[in-house]
Amino acid sequence: QVQLVESGGGLVQAGGSLRLSCAASGRTGWLGMGWFRQAPGKEREFVAAISGPGDSTYSADSVKGRFTISRDYAKNTVYLQMTSLKPEDTAVYYCAAGGSRYVRVEPQEYDYWGQGTQVTVSS
Predict the structure, then answer these.
(1) What confidence score (pLDDT) does residue 29 get?
(2) Rounded Cα distance, 16 and 25, in Å
(3) d(Cα 30, Cα 43) in Å, to the nearest integer?
(4) pLDDT (tens digit per residue) in 84-113
(5) Does residue 56 register a pLDDT over 80?
(6) pLDDT of residue 88
(7) b/e for 76-113, b at 16 or more Cβ within 10 A?
(8) Which residue among 4, 30, 89, 100 is the one 20 to 30 A from 14 at the CA level?
(9) Backbone φ and ψ of 76, nearest 5°
């Protein structure tokens, strides 16, 4: 069984930075991992994903050039480095582990989810 625990969220001013962490328990080393977010009244949306081997990443256009996904296999942890934050980045951010080793962008392609961490960006 895989369990995911996110941390690192908080309140930050526009233009600031945060780093989210997703600590995984269980065998996730070969699974693709992703970050999604959900703002109030909106559907969950894809943010970024990384392949099982870590050789491929993909980000949503809205965060390209500002957010970077990475993973540390020794710590079994995935990170989302967020810079140049905007008020529209405000959301609950979720970490997810997929059913395959490839990069995936659809929520239904992921089998495991964390509980989420709140990110609030003030203007």
Answers:
(1) 74
(2) 30
(3) 28
(4) 999 999 999 999 998 788 999 999 999 999
(5) yes
(6) 97
(7) ebbbbebeebeeebbbbbbbbbbeeeebbbebebbebb
(8) 4
(9) 50, 50
Q: Are strands 3-7 and 57-59 parallel, antiparallel or unpaired?
A: unpaired
Q: Which residue has the higher pLDDT, 30 or 110?
A: 110
To which residue do tokens 């960006």 refer? 121
Q: Measuring CA to CA, which residue among 13, 40, 25 is closest to residue 78?
A: 25
10 CB neighbour count, 10 Å cutoff: 13
* Cα–Cα distance, 97 to 42 (Å, whole number): 22
Give the pair of three-digit tokens for residue 121: 């960006």
d(CA 69, CA 58): 8
State how far the Cα of 123 lies from the Cα of 109, in Å rounded to an integer: 34
